[in-house]
Amino acid sequence: MDLFSNLALGFATAASPWNLLFCLVGALLGTLVGVLPGIGATATIAMLLPITFQLEPVSSLIMLAGIYYGAQYGGSTTAILINMPGESSSAVTALDGYQMARKGKAGAALAIAALGSFFAGSVSTFLVALFAPPLTSIALQFGAAEYFSLMVVGLVSSIALAHGSIVKALGMVVLGLLLGLVGTDIYSGTPRFTFGIREYSDGLNFVAVAVGIFGIAEILRNLESEKTREVLMAKVGGLMPSREDLKAMVAPMLRGTAIGSALGILPGGGAILASFASYTVEKRISKTPEEFGRGIVAGVAGPESANNAGAQTSFIPMLTLGIPANPVMALMIGAMIIQGIVPGPNVATEQPKLFWGIIASMWIGNLMLVVLNLPLIGLWVKLLTVPYYVLFPIIMAFCSIGVYSVNGNAYDLYAVAFFGLIGYVLAKLRCEPAPLLLGFVLGPLLEENLRRAMIISRGDPSVFVTRPISAILLLLALTVLIVVFLPSVRKKRDEVFVEED
Amino acid sequence: MKSVSIDPANGAAGALFIAIGAVFAFQAFGLELGTTFRMGPGYFPLVLSLILIFLGCIVLVQATQVQGEPIGAFAWRGMLLILPAPIIFGLTVRGLGFVPALFLAALIAAFASTRMRPLMAVVLAIAVSLFSALVFIKGLGLPFRLFGPWLGY
Question: Does this UniProt record's set of keywords contain Ribonucleoprotein (chain B) (predicted)?
Fold first, then answer.
């Protein structure tokens, strides 16, 4: 069968000694940075992205995938041990995980999170392998108009899942799109918005923008209030969950995996929604809903599984369509472009090794996390006790090296400082950075497809609604927009996001 | 008399959107706009910046309606010392070379925390520079000079 021969090719690629090593190094580094309090998966990947550029494309993406899982796992670790989730998706884990840790079950909570993630990861890796190829063949029929509409869907959904004001999130998307247009116009060769600086004529460096907006802004936020963290390290012991705990985690894990896999495919950050949805479901069907928030196993196992399943299936739109479903995928696409791979449906047919190698490495990365990180947990906990003021100068140094090593362009470093400032100010004004990054990546693609579609249709804008697939996609985007503006949904959405604070 | 109160965070966000939109719109007008059939380099950016200005206005209007939480303290010390770090690295990496440039960047960033003591900062900066030189230049083989022409190398 095709599926199995493809998977075999993938595993053969991902399991070569060098790629295994890169996956391992990635997972370890990802965890290392991910456990730094307050730094989530996106910031971690943005910071570590540059070190992968020296590798060949397959290895570099496999290493990135490793970093991703490591960072996520690191985020859950800080959520459980010091109640400081790095990212909104692990905020839900903190609710019950931290309470478990306070009851002296920190080890069990960490093990449950890891096992739940591994199970969810295994199932959803298989789903990605199953669904990616058929979607690819559909995507191959896409023309410029369809691509444009599809990107609109992705951008609109990213708004739906952002926190706070919808209008501000829309503004961030548009701002990102505009920033993405900085550089030379592809049709006429005219430099645009470069303020006469020749070094920006190739556009703003993606890594610089990502490191600035996510990494530096994050550091500045952490510097606002330097308080001593209470690490529950003495109580990490007894890693193995009890038999009861294991029994209690099976059903939430299965439900979480199902919820996460379904929501992850949605463009716009389904993984975040997945952990909230799973938590809500578990609470609703539980016989003891009052135990939630006091350290119940289901409150850790469900959301962690859902989160990981969603993270995995969010690779589907990225691999098949070249459309990022969340900021992490936007980073992946940025990495692919820097490696000279054009993301989109052609990747599967032109670079089967890369395509299936990434899919296989997802599973291997998950396995490595369980096998390696559970025994290493003591080390990560020790790392949490290293004071923050020692860590961030190191991070700043590595960020500078990383960004500079991409092109050897000092102007990229100035851009880092600039976007660090912008990112911090926008965060203070309660504007979400994720939609901006999506817009930044999609900006040039959106414009190119719009212009191409208009040229093909001889200036007739009705092409977007007369071509059926495009019309359906635009209708979908419109529906999403209307739904998020509906008062009842708005209220519900506020509730969901309030819970995490 | 009715006094108009503006939510500081939303008010500033709206104003920022409008300002950035205006800058982009102004620049886009200087480019060839083209027609819907053959869009020039200025067409799409102009549309986007007008949308951004429009959204900024909505945010601004909303800011007068609802009061949110205050913005909170800014990390001034952090901004003053963290943001220059990559700039200093960029300015000196060619002239001074990789190791001294990194030392300076790490040193200045280290002082962003009120808890950092001078001796600790120097030790940390030296350690980071040496470690990075070993890993990135010797190990990964990045093509940067360890010490630059300003130091007579």
Answer: no
